[in-house]
Amino acid sequence: MPKAARRQSGPKSAARSEPYPAIKPGDKPSEKASSKPELPLPDHFDDLCAHHKEAAIKKAEKALQEKSSSDVNKSAKSSSSKKSSASEKPSSAEKKSASFLDLKLDGEDNDSVPIYDTCSEVRRKINALLGKDNNKPENGIPGEFKKDGTPKPYTKAAFVRAVDASSKQLDTFMKAKKMMGGGDSAIYPKAYMFFEKKRIFEGKKKTAGRLKVEQE
Fold it and tell me: Model's pTM, two decimal places?
């Protein structure tokens, strides 16, 4: 009688039941085992002599290296451009505070802002702001709009609130005469700073009269 087959048990027999596949000479490694990218060899590579094959391999390796480095540079540039574009975008908080009233003039904290406009010039600007031309978009109250979406124009009450003054002070200052009439009014420096901030915010140049006063 033939001998009975030996019984195998345990983890060792299970491991032996599935041996590694044999690799024959000339077999190419599978795509999973190979982590290196395939070289861009020419189609007639097999027909070349040994010397030309070596040159073709070197050329393919160089092209592959240049391609990988260019891909890395492109990804780095795209990530940096995304970061720069994200940093250039203003936040919602910055958009809300985009008002000329938020600007700070040199010397404003200690009440030492130099004044380069006469009282009559400040009165002229107040009349332009509150007069018939106050419907211009640049004369609107920052952040306040009508139902149709246009900026709300400054009123007398809105202006005195903006400069932290009273209507009586404004009336007294506007009734003064001569170039420096009302120079002792508390509204004079406040109104000047209001219009100076507005000029800086809008990027308007200084007038010739303003530059002359600064030189003097």
Answer: 0.54
**Is there a domain that residue 17 lies in?**
no
Bridge partners, 145 (sequence order) = 151
Q: How far apart are CA 134 and CA 126, in angstroms?
A: 10
Domain-ending residue, one of 32, 55, 88: 88
Residue 175 tokens, joined: 């009734």
* Full domain range(s) for residue 68: 45-88
| Statement to judge: residues 104 and 188 lie in one domain | yes
Q: Kindly report, residue by residue over 49-69, the tens digit of the pLDDT.
A: 666 667 777 777 777 777 766
Q: Judge whether 179 and 102 are in contact, CB under 8 Å.
A: no
Note the pLDDT tens digit of each residue in 164-213. Answer: 999 999 999 999 999 999 999 999 999 999 999 999 998 999 988 889 88
Measured over the CA atoms of residue 25, residue 27, residue 32 and residue 35, the dihedral's sign is positive
